[in-house]
Amino acid sequence: MVVRREFFGALAGLGAGVLAGAGCAHRPGSRSSFVERRAAHRTALTRDAPSTGRWRSDQEPPAGAQAIRYPSADGELLAYYAAPMTGEGAKAPALVYFHGEFSLRPSDFDKVRPFVDAGFAVLTPSLRGENGNPGRMELLYGELDDAKAAIRWLVDQPGVDGSRVFSLGHSIGGGLSALLSLDPQVPLVATASAGGVYVPETFVRWGRNPKQSELVRFDPGDREERELRSLGPHVAEMARPHIAYVGDEDPWIMRNAEAVRDAAAEHHRLFELEVVAGDHGAMIRPAVAKYLGRVAAL
């Protein structure tokens, strides 16, 4: 897919920098690419268990959407899907939205309902180990394979324009959407995150925090494990644009996003940081509105 570089305006505040706490960003020719490193690596999990996310086994699909199962390596996984009514032969643009909080709930679909109202087909997938799905939580590792499988399912749906598919994620789902910018084979025009930029140091910090250590099911001292879950060390390899929306009251994510922006500035302009109003939760509404405004005309 051709990257639509006009998607981005000029970035403000560009400057040379390194990714805080992450070591040097990947440079072409210095070592294997992100895709190659992932293919060669097998994550070593310290805990074999499902997601920590909360959900109800009797939850109904959101209004106007249907519950579907899409195939992935660990089995069939739950998702909610809605497609617009199109005329014969017409095809709609599409969005895949990756939720936060480690489980899929009807309210996650409602967060991106403006895309449905604007005529997009919308898929909100759950991932391995979530919502009673098979598999185990891996924290931004095997879940990336599920994300790619969900996109393939979406592109294959009748009435979907496979040349106009976009991704967006909130919180941990934003980290997943960011990683999708690194694989040139994924059929996406652009990716975006809302409060979801992570750096390798994030996992070290979480591992030391009693309230977050349950999420880190690998050795956070292992550099390979950390880096293969982070966009920053690989920004030179970005295959498509990524917009990182960050709330002006979300200081941890802001610091991460600024570090990644500075690392990306050494290579190209495919990473953009845009500040919106709100804390980690409240910023999702303005982020959705801004992203829809950017992609609707493409």
Written description of the protein model:
Strands 1-2-4-3-5-6-7-8 form an eight-stranded mixed beta sheet, sandwiched between helices. Helix 8 links the parallel strand 7 (242-247) and strand 8. By secondary structure, it is α/β, with parallel strands linked by helices. It is built from nine helices and eight strands. It has one domain (5-47, 62-295): Rossmann fold (3-Layer(aba) Sandwich). The protein has helices spanning 34-40, 106-111, 113-117, 142-155, 172-179, 200-208, 223-227, 251-265, 284-295, and strands spanning 66-72, 75-82, 92-98, 121-125, 160-170, 190-194, 242-247, 271-276.
Topology (elements, then pairings):
Layout: H1 34-40, E1 66-72, E2 75-82, E3 92-98, H2 106-111, H3 113-117, E4 121-125, H4 142-155, E5 160-170, H5 172-179, E6 190-194, H6 200-208, H7 223-227, E7 242-247, H8 251-265, E8 271-276, H9 284-295
Parallel strand pairs: 3-4, 3-5, 5-6, 6-7, 7-8
Antiparallel strand pairs: 1-2, 2-4
